[in-house]
Every structure is written in structure tokens, then in C-alpha cells.
């Protein structure tokens, strides 16, 4: 019989969202007349902007004509999209189109990047706590995490605690991590990183020869001019950082699927014999071997994000969600809750009132207000006592949810 990857057995059962689903279903079955508003999962709700749809329609028609039909595209993406990204998203940051690799999602890229790094514990990995679970689980699968303790913390990982006390910017550890995952604007806390803070990480990475994996999926939600939108705004980051970006949240692509990863030329890792190897070379090889590119139609849709109309329409989409975030943040503040985030990110992170655990607050919100959020403990031990509300919803639902919370708590 085929042997399985034993590391999968160390994964804690996908606990968070299934458990939320179970509790919501049980409540709904017992209370069939109640309508429940879900501010839990971070999926977008608003339709795809017209400029994107028009570009995709035109691309479909091209494929229907023998003269403009296209088959396999370049594995790393069409130049028209990589050039548009370099020109708009990395203006003045010296990122070339050749350093941009188009993919079908940041979640996939965050996991796939482990293909080009040594596994089975050869690299010490640092993650934030609370954390986007993908970083942890993919390292468990790769054999980098070892077993979990009773709090669900993996023995082999370094956890960087993000709390209100440190402004959700965890202290830079003394210990050496070979790979550090950073996500700003942050899911789940809605926090942003200052330029100074990211500069400390770049200095740390240079000191230890570490690789920073910077997840900038929410960069479009940054409103403050002094908050860095890319790790490459920090001097020296090109020598130590890979950046992940996605069209999922700013352009409504969670179902369409398009993202990209920047691997700077000159960024290297070390082979077991000490040879320095360019990571771009390995990523290029990984992608061209295991991936055949994103569909032409989708890449035309993504490129339309950078047209004048696309910029305006996606800007409006972001503004729409950020108005939801403002309503949630201010609505809960008025109820004397301690709220964080929601200013440069579409998530509001709150301290559970009355000393509730995050699951107790989940139950209270569900049964009293019929509103669903996400318990902070589901994102890691340091998320206990916190709760996440997402701004991805209709205005109507956000306003109704706030009224219910106000009436019930
Ligand atoms: C939504 C999200 C992504 C984007 O994932 P896709 O696979 O591109 O949809 C990446 N990172 C974080 C932290 C996210 O919340």
C-alpha cells in the first residue's frame, strides 16, 4: 500500500470554520424563524466591476476567432499583465515585470513556496499568533512544525504574539528564524505595520540570513499615506523578501482567481553544500513544472484593474467595504467596546466584552443578536479574548447587524 505523508496526521482537524458552521446550523435548526447575518468568513460580496467583466468578455471573443485564439500561455503570466502590475503597484520601487509571477491565488503561492525551500525541519519558521492558518498548516504538511501541544501550538514553530499591548506588531525575536511570515495589513487583526517596524524585520533578516514572506493581500485597503504598501518600500528588502499579492479582495476575484508573487532577482537561499542559489530560478522552475498559468480570460480581467475605469471601479469597491469597516468600528466603539483595525484593513478586531472567552462571545452574539463573527482563539492561542468581524458584506447587512448587536448586548 502507498505510504502517506505522515505530517498530515499532525494537523489539527480544520476546526475553526467547520465548528462555526456546526454551531450556526444547530442554532438555525432550533430557531428556523431567525435570520442570521454572517460577518464571519473573509469572502467578498459585491459583484465584479464592469471594466473587468468587459475585458473578460472581449477575451472570450478573441478565443472564439481562429486568428486571435490562444492556447497555453507563458507559465509566469502574460507580459501585458506583469508590465501593468510593475508600472502601477510597484511604481518607483524598482520591481521589474520579470520578477512578477502570475498565479491562481496567494493562498496557493504561500503554500507552494515551500516547494523551493528545504523541508522536514531544516528551516526554523516564525509565524504570528493570531495567524492566517495557511502559513501554519502548510508548514505542518512540509514537516517543519512537529507535533502540537494542548493549546494547539506546534513545537517546531516560533510564535510571534500580536496583542493590543504591542499594537499587533509582535516583538522581533532574539532567536533566529530562517523563514518569517508577515501579513500586513493583517488578517485577522486588521493592524498595519509601520515603515520602522518593517525596517526592523529587514534588518533582522539581513543579520540572520532569513527569508521574509510578506503577504500583502490587503494592500489596496491602506488609506494612510505613511503606511507601507509593499515590503520593497523598505531599503534592503529586495535581498531578503518575497511578496504575495492577490486580486481577490480589491477586485472581487475570490471566485475568479488571480494573484501574483514577486521574487526579486538577486534574492538567494543556501544549498546544503553552501552554494547560494537564486530563489527566482527555483520558483520559475517550480511554476513551469507544476503550473500551466492562469487563463487568458482571467489575466485580461486582472489587467483591466489597471485601466482608468478599472482603477476607479475597484477603488469604489474598496471604499465601499471600508465604509462598512468604519460603521462597524464606530458602532462598536459607541457601545464601549475596545476595537482595533478597520482603518486600513477590512477587518475589525475587538476585545470580547465582559471577560467572555472568544467562543463564549461567539455564542452570545449568535443567540442574542443572530450575528456570526469569528472567535479570535480560532486564529491562535494569542487570539483568545478577541473576536473578528469582517467588513465584506452588503451595507444593509452591516447596518442591521450593528442594530441587533446594540439591542442585544
Ligand atoms: C484572502 C487572503 C489571501 C488571498 O488568497 P487568494 O488565494 O489569492 O484568494 C491571502 N492572504 C490572506 C491573509 C488572505 O486573507
Q: What does this entry look like structurally?
A:
It is built from eleven helices and 15 strands. It is α/β, with parallel strands linked by helices and 409 residues long. The protein has two domains: 6-47 and 309-408, Aspartate Aminotransferase, domain 1, CATH 3.90.1150.10; 53-307, Aspartate Aminotransferase, domain 2 (3-Layer(aba) Sandwich). Strand 5 (179-183), helix 6 and strand 6 form a beta-alpha-beta unit. The longest helix is centred in the last third of the chain and has 27 residues, at 308-334. The structure holds pyridoxal-5'-phosphate. It catalyses: (2S,6S)-2,6-diaminopimelate + 2-oxoglutarate = (S)-2,3,4,5-tetrahydrodipicolinate + L-glutamate + H2O + H(+). This is LL-diaminopimelate aminotransferase. Its cofactor is pyridoxal 5'-phosphate. One of its GO terms (molecular function) is pyridoxal phosphate binding.
Annotation, overall tally of beta strands: 15
Bound molecules: pyridoxal-5'-phosphate
Low-confidence stretches: none
Radius of gyration: 22 Å
How is the biggest beta sheet arranged? Answer: 7 strands, mixed
Shape, principal axes of CA atoms: globular
Give the neighbour order of strands across the main sheet: 2-8-7-6-5-3-4
User: What's the architecture of the largest domain in CATH terms?
Assistant: 3-Layer(aba) Sandwich
Give the helix level as a range of percent: 25-40%
CATH topology value of the largest domain: Aspartate Aminotransferase, domain 2
What structural class do helix, strand and pairing data support? alpha/beta
